[in-house]
TrEMBL record:
All copies of domain Lactate/malate dehydrogenase C-terminal, residue ranges: 148-328
Keywords, in A-Z order: NAD, Oxidoreductase, Tricarboxylic acid cycle
One of the protein's GO biological processes: malate metabolic process
EC number per UniProt: 1.1.1.37
Protein name as catalogued: Malate dehydrogenase
Record-linked InterPro entries: L-lactate/malate_DH, Lactate/malate_DH_C, Lactate/malate_DH_N, Lactate_DH/Glyco_Ohase_4_C, Malate_DH_AS, Malate_DH_type1, NAD(P)-bd_dom_sf
Annotated organism of origin: Phanerochaete carnosa (strain HHB-10118-sp) (White-rot fungus)
SUPFAM superfamilies: LDH C-terminal domain-like, NAD(P)-binding Rossmann-fold domains
Subunit structure: Homodimer.
A Gene Ontology molecular function term of the record: L-malate dehydrogenase (NAD+) activity
Length: 333
């Protein structure tokens, strides 16, 4: 029995993500919450002939608590996407407040749930959830994840495109580490499961890396003011949620990159810190999932000199983003 909850379920990501979770046969209950339209989305999805019972609530009458009751896994795509006229700071302030309030609800009603944060900026919203959970005395780093799967999905697709064979995309895996915005996104293309073509020059590698780091911009531009990635994000979010669910149900050996607190690792992420050579609190790294959430953080392995420079470039930005999230909560106490 798995109850999955989507907070922000009526949005551009929320609706297709809820659809994909409804089609996951392991999900037996699906709780949908948003400030608009959830009863409609829930009624619509409830007609699909898969096991999940679907419920949808709005804020009145404790809708958030009702949705979260008994949740095993909570996915959060609530918030505003990038749009023309919205600065990064505007976006941060709006989404930080939304995530803070939703995290408070989770801390009160479903403190044992696995929490998967999609709302941007992930590098800051994950620390916001952690700080709220700490305030409520329910922070368990093993159960908190920033969803960076879209970067991983893009890396597989773009490598397959370079190879001229999209048919290979589903089987190509490229670890993407660091964080989840711009320079903090570090694809380890030297560890791609499918080798890049011989003659792939440093310039080509830099272009491909840049495309993975800024893939979101392609979608924002093509949508021309209508928002950012929603369908590919829903796919990526459902993929990651399904891995977490399989791990909860006891499947072993599932590894996926995700943005986590280093205390989630049994050894406190010491091996990763050693590889990177810096003190760190949060990082996106390949994580082995288990019934308790994070089973261990995997080492990054051998990096090329180019990949080392990418990690170096990511660290200061990552630290600033994390600090911004932490300060948002400490300042609003
Ligand atoms: P959207 O505007 O289409 O949907 C957001 C939904 O959140 C709306 O239905 C809205 O009513 C709801 N919402 C707002 N405040 C709420 C609250 N207090 N409680 C519950 N629901 C609330 O936006 P979209 O495109 O679905 O994007 C959502 C978020 O996901 C954005 O922050 C975006 O930047 C982020 N995102 C993250 C990605 C990732 O890779 N992690 C990729 C793409 C987007």
């Amino acid at each position: 029995m798995v109850k999955a909850v989507v907070l922000g379920a009526a949005g551009g990501i929320g609706q297709p993500l809820s659809l994909l979770l409804k089609t996951n046969p392991s999900v037996t209950e699906l709780g949908l919450y948003d400030i608009v339209n959830t009863p409609g989305v829930a009624a619509d999805l409830s007609h699909i002939s898969t096991p999940a019972k679907v419920v949808g609530y709005l804020p009145p009458d404790d809708g958030l608590a009702k949705t979260l009751q008994g949740a095993d896994i909570v996915v959060i795509p609530a918030g505003v996407p990038r749009k023309p006229g919205l600065t990064r700071d505007d976006l941060f302030k709006i989404n930080a407040g939304i995530v803070r309030d939703l995290a408070t609800g989770i801390a009160k009603t479903a403190p044992k749930a696995f929490v998967l944060v999609i709302s941007n900026p992930v590098n800051s919203t994950v620390p916001i959830v952690a700080e709220i959970f700490k305030q409520h005395g329910v922070f368990e780093p093993k159960r908190l994840f920033g969803v960076t799967t879209l970067d991983v999905v893009r890396a597989s697709t773009f490598v397959a495109e370079v190879l001229g064979d999209l048919g290979k995309a589903p089987s190509i895996s490229v670890p993407v580490v660091g964080g989840h915005s711009g320079v903090t996104i570090v694809p380890l293309l030297s560890q791609s499961s499918a080798a890049l073509p011989s003659g792939f020059a440093q310039g080509d590698l830099e272009k491909l890396t840049n495309r993975i780091q800024y893939g979101g911009d392609e979608v924002v531009k093509a949508k021309d003011g209508a928002g950012s990635a929603t369908l590919s994000m829903a796919y990526a979010g459902a993929e990651f949620a399904s891995k977490v669910i399989r791990a909860i149900k006891g499947e072993k050996g599932i590894v996926a990159p995700t943005f986590v607190h280093l205390a989630s690792d049994p050894a406190g992420g010491e091996a990763l810190k050693k590889e990177i050579g810096k003190e760190l609190e949060y990082f996106s790294a390949p994580v082995e999932l288990g019934p308790e959430g994070v089973a261990s953080i995997k080492p990054l392995g051998k990096l090329t000199d180019y990949e080392k420079t990418l990690v170096e470039a990511a660290l200061p930005e990552l630290a600033t983003n994390v600090e911004k999230g932490v300060t948002f909560i400490s300042a609003s106490k």
